[in-house]
Write a structure and sequence with these properties.
The protein has helices at about 25-35, 80-95, 100, and strands spanning about 5-20, 50-65. It is an alpha+beta fold. The protein has one domain (about 5-100). The protein has a two-stranded antiparallel ribbon.
């Protein structure tokens, strides 16, 4: 309940990949091969050409009986829901141990 209105929350995890093309080892290997006058491009520094790191986020959807999406731009309850979600985020970031939540007031 937020401001005496009932809302429904749905959450799920979202992965957003960050892909990087790593050119430094390739350039280094070619430069050393040419400096040593080698015909083969030997691999002096092994490296992956493309690295991928996934970052995980928690996505939250909020809806009510009157609105299908309470976070859209023109929603009349957007500000109160966002204030609640910001407080929820702060509480989540301050908890270091899950058991702390069981004994909170």
């Amino acid at each position: 309940m937020i401001d005496q209105d009932q809302y429904y929350f749905a959450f799920y995890e979202v992965s957003i990949p960050n892909k990087t093309l790593n050119l430094a080892p390739i350039i280094f290997n070619v430069a050393v091969s040419r400096a040593l006058a080698l015909e083969d491009n030997e691999e002096f520094v092994p490296a992956e050409e493309i690295t991928r790191r996934d970052r995980w986020y928690i996505a939250i959807e909020v809806y009510s009986d009157e609105q299908t999406d309470c976070l859209v731009k023109d929603s009349f309850s957007k500000e109160s829901v966002l204030a609640y979600l910001r407080a929820l985020k702060e509480e989540y970031l301050t908890i270091h141990n899950y058991n702390e939540t069981l004994f909170r007031d």
